[in-house]
Amino acid sequence: MDDSDFLHEVLNLYEVNNGDEPVNYSNGKNAKFVLNGLETERKANVFTISGVEYTIKAVTDNAVTVSSVSDTDAIFDKIKGFVNEKLMERRYRDFPPLTNEQRRAMDDKEIEMWEEKAKSGLLRGDHMLSGILTDMRMLISDQVKGLGDGRISSLAQIGITTGSKSYK
């Protein structure tokens, strides 16, 4: 079955001809491109690679430059949230690691829920993590010596703080 038979017989599509020129049908072609020196092919013109969405709109022989910017504030907020959450996470001491016998007696969902409780709170009060957090807070609040005219002597004075306290 050729393309026009498929369009007519399966999809019930017919050409509308406003003149004497015949309408040609053809199958689409894969998007072919080179990304970071690697020849690549995709079935669609919109695709995602390593979390970046690309849309190919035209054929070109010229090099195309793609640039992206990371949202460093969002990354920082996620890390800070994770650290704070883990330092304060409740520890469930009644949930030790499961034995093989206990695993056999449970279904997958029960095992998953048990292990989630068993792993929670493992970093609660962790001295190394707490120490890193304390050191970071001190670096932000400490005065920096030798900054020009002396009007600004800490990061807190320009709005970079470690909590809800603001400096003016």
From TrEMBL:
GO terms for cellular component: bacterial-type flagellum filament cap. It comes from the Bacteria. One of its GO terms (biological process) is cell adhesion. InterPro entries: FliD (IPR040026), FliD_C (IPR010809). Residues 28-165 form the Flagellar hook-associated protein 2 C-terminal domain. It holds the Pfam family FliD_C. This is Flagellar hook-associated protein 2 C-terminal domain-containing protein.
